[in-house]
Design brief:
Length: about 100
């Protein structure tokens, strides 16, 4: 899969406008990308759409709009996009306390 670039991302203003629709799309997409491994461990299999969402959320939360900050987020999250020859997952440990 292709890596995300600056051109793929929405401006903060545009993302704010489309966020509810985009988030709903991604949440529906993620439902089939989750595997529970016992009571406390979950794997989430990542892809380009999910990473696009993650980057947009980080940019929004941190109010990142400068080119260097955006590139740092791209560099961090692009590593989690499978390249077509592998799978990539995030492992989450979940405990009440």
């Amino acid at each position: 899969m292709a890596q995300l670039t600056h051109k793929d991302l929405y401006s903060l203003e545009e993302y704010s406008r489309i966020r509810p629709e985009f988030r709903a799309k991604v949440m529906a997409h993620k439902k089939n990308r989750r595997i529970d491994l016992g009571e406390h461990v979950v794997l989430f299999f990542e892809d380009r759409l999910v990473m696009h969402y993650q980057i947009q959320e980080m940019l929004k939360a941190e109010k990142i709009f400068d080119a260097q900050g955006i590139q740092e987020e791209l560099d961090a999250y692009n590593r989690l996009i499978p390249d077509g020859t592998n799978w990539k997952a995030t492992m989450m440990s979940q405990y009440a306390d």
